Amino acid sequence: MQSLMKFVFVALTVLFGAALVTSAHAQSSNRVVVDIPFDFSVGSTLLRAGNYKVEEVQSGILVFNGNDGQDHQFALTVGEEASNQDNQPKLIFTRYGDGTFLNKVFLSGSDDYRQLLPSSREKKLIQKRTSGEELSLLVQSGR
């Protein structure tokens, strides 16, 4: 029963997010373009290395669109604040062994960022290893 409720929640979230993409696309200035040179996970979904547009379509919801038109992923996030010393938009990843997970997205040069919620796979890797290697990619402003 719990897994059915979880599935329904995820399906409704994705459908809700998809409906917002069209209307928010023209309005959003919180958008960056980044070339990610390695495969990475957003939540429980593995995305291939490549060029992505990352956009906040609604407070707390990020969408990742690959330039190839095939990779498309939504992520629920929590707003946080931390020092962004280089004052540049960037994505922060954590690598545990051969798994690389997107954790933070700075859409602007400010100290505000979006924290992605860890997937169950990432939580298991965190439990097995005491620390992960942090990777940071600077990004271009959205086009």
Overview of the molecule:
The protein has one domain. The protein contains 2 helices and 11 strands; from the N terminus they run αβββββββββαββ. The termini are far apart. The protein has a 9-stranded antiparallel beta sheet with strand order 10-7-8-9-6-5-4-1-11. A two-stranded antiparallel sheet has the order 2-3. With 143 residues, the protein is of the alpha+beta class.
Task: List the main descriptive attributes of the protein structure presented here.
single chain, 143 residues, alpha+beta, two-stranded antiparallel ribbon, 2 helices, 23% helix, globular
Write the layout of secondary structure elements.
Elements: H1 2-25, E1 31-36, E2 40-42, E3 45-47, E4 50-58, E5 61-66, E6 72-81, E7 90-96, E8 99-106, E9 112-116, H2 120-128, E10 133-138, E11 140-141
Antiparallel strand pairs: 1-4, 1-11, 2-3, 4-5, 5-6, 6-9, 7-8, 7-10, 8-9
Q: Approximately how much beta-strand content do the residues carry? A: over 45%
* Biggest pleated-sheet summary: 9 strands, antiparallel
By helix and strand content, what is the structural category? alpha+beta
Counting DSSP H or I runs of 4 or more residues, the number of helices is 2
Distance between the termini: 44 Å
**How many domain regions?**
1
Low-confidence stretches: 4-28
Q: Please compute the radius of gyration using only Cα atoms.
A: 15 Å
Order of helices and strands: HEEEEEEEEEHEE
Helicity level: 10-25%
* Total DSSP E strands: 11
Average pLDDT works out at: 75
Coarse shape: globular
The strand order across the widest sheet is 10-7-8-9-6-5-4-1-11
